[in-house]
Design a protein that fits this description.
There is one protein chain. The chain has a 4-stranded parallel beta sheet. Strands 7-10-8-9 form a 4-stranded antiparallel beta sheet, with no helix packed on it. A 4-stranded antiparallel beta sheet has the order 12-11-13-14. It is α+β, with helices and mostly antiparallel strands. The longest helix is centred in the first third of the chain and has 20 residues. Helix 2 crosses helix 3.
């Protein structure tokens, strides 16, 4: 049985496509409703069945109903539950991809022609390449926690070396530990050089607007401007960029792009983000 919201006949508000237990989805829904609009959180299956895509010869595709959408698609299960369940999920994702890509309504994180995914990858190097950034230090993937690979490289911005600590991340649990410690989980693993005691700043981006999460004065680093550029090149609209800041606060390097920021990140900038979100979804 689905735990999605059940939109009434004639519903004309925001459709948030997400796990119904996703705290960001429920917070956005409640905020939109309190602002005087309708909103519902639907899982992938219910959202796909809500829309009809019509394609006729010589005419532009039509998506009905025309409703603003926000996509926060949960990751597929790591292990196949059953062939039938996987087939149904893929069919619903295909329908949802078409509806979200072709609708005339606003869509937060609208799918690209290549699929529902974005340019963000589990590989930091690949994400850097897709975002048009200088590629940093060596990156290693392995079924076992990889030992340090070569010396830490001095790459990226002038004076912003890659650091002297080898960090190992478990790609199933997303926990990260400094070598020789092992992160929780059983792999596979990713490892890369970084600072032993890094300083971070998180910047939340919505379209061409950005909000840093801390009150530290970092205007000279142009983090808001640089973050919006990175997010746009990766095919995202709502995302967060985590920057590693040098101890002297003179240099910054993006280390993580999060296509689905968590509720704590968004709450830190909600006074600016919330009103802008309404402008995007209900122009």
């Amino acid at each position: 049985m689905s735990s999605s919201d059940v939109p009434h006949a004639g519903f004309s508000g925001l459709v948030v496509v997400a796990d119904p237990e996703d705290p960001v989805a429920t917070e956005v829904r409640d905020f939109v409703v309190e602002s005087g609009h309708e909103a519902a959180v639907l899982d992938v299956f219910d959202a796909a069945q809500m829309f009809t895509v019509t394609v006729d010869d010589g005419a532009a595709p039509v998506v009905e109903p025309v409703l603003p959408m926000m996509l926060r698609l949960p990751a597929p299960p790591l292990l196949r539950i059953s062939f039938d369940a996987e087939f149904q999920l893929n069919e619903c994702l295909a329908q949802l991809w078409a509806a979200a890509a072709l609708t005339a309504a606003p869509v937060i994180n609208r799918p690209a022609p290549g699929g529902l995914g974005t340019g963000v990858s589990a590989s930091g190097v690949l994400t850097e390449l897709r975002a048009g950034l200088p590629v940093g230090s060596v990156e290693v993937f392995s079924s076992r926690p990889p030992e340090p690979e070569g010396p830490a490289e001095a790459a990226g911005e002038a004076g912003a070396g890659e650091g002297t600590q080898w960090w190992v991340q478990d790609l199933a649990s997303w926990t990260t530990r400094p070598w020789p410690e092992r992160p929780a989980g059983s792999g596979p693993y990713r490892a890369r050089w970084s600072d032993p005691d890094p300083l971070f700043e998180n910047v939340v981006v919505l379209g061409d607007h950005a909000w840093p999460c801390s009150a530290v004065e970092l205007d000279g680093l142009r983090l808001e401007e640089r973050s919006t550029g990175i997010v746009a090149r990766l095919g995202l609209e709502l995302a967060s960029v985590v920057w590693r800041i040098s101890p002297d606060l003179h240099c910054a390097k993006p280390v993580v792009v999060e296509p689905f920021p968590d509720v704590e990140q968004l709450r830190m900038v909600w006074l600016g983000l919330g009103p802008q979100l309404l402008k995007v979804l209900f122009p």
